[in-house]
Amino acid sequence: MDTTGSAPWRPRTSPPGGLAATPPAAGQESVWDYPRPPAVVPSDEHVVVLLGGTVVADTRRALRVLETSHPPTYYLPRADMDPGALRAVDGPATWCEFKGRATYLDVVGEGPDGSALVARQAAWTYPDPAPAFRALAGHVALYPGRMTRCTVDGEVVRAQSGDFYGGWRTARVVGPFKGEPGTRGW
After folding, report:
1. pLDDT at residue 4, as a whole number
2. What is the mean pLDDT of residues 53-69?
């Protein structure tokens, strides 16, 4: 029995297919409370990205994009990235109904033998984002699963499941998450 007088937590949106949203504990967020269209939220968390032996990014000025059913995607200021870590690629662009046209970048680090280590099309940016997402201009998102290691405030990030999604899973966020088996139609 609830003796605090508060109602039990209910998600803003319920997961499809009869799945139950995991109730967040103190200090946690549920992806089922995130909005659609997504929200852009500044973060002062310490974000560090490594590819091989190269610190690709080190920032406390990330932007978190929060969208229903997805772990946050971290967008990192280009100014806080290693100047040689990003390389434009000729390749397909994608379109987000909210943010606009995304272009992709290779991420370049240094391998153990000193040679270039390249994660192909492992980052993306919105060169001219839609008006509601102008804050993303000058920022780059990375697929955490294609990097050697990504951390948020020292916690090692787990990549969102699925080969298209760029969410960063930490203990701060609970699901279930889009991209996991059985979520294809979400």
Report:
1. 54
2. 97
Residue with tokens 């059913």: 69
Residue 28 in domain: no
C-alpha–C-alpha distance, residues 186 and 167, integer Å: 15
**Structure token pair of residue 23:** 């109730």
Give me the domain span that covers residue 162. 34-174
Q: Give the residue, 183 or 4, on which the prediction is more confident.
A: 183
The pTM of this model reads 0.94
Residues 6+ apart with CB under 8 A from 186: 15, 16, 69, 178
Sign of the C-alpha dihedral computed for residues 24, 28, 30 and 33 taken in this order: positive
Domain count, the chain: 1
Burial class (CB in 10 A: 0-12, 13-18, 19+), 82: middle
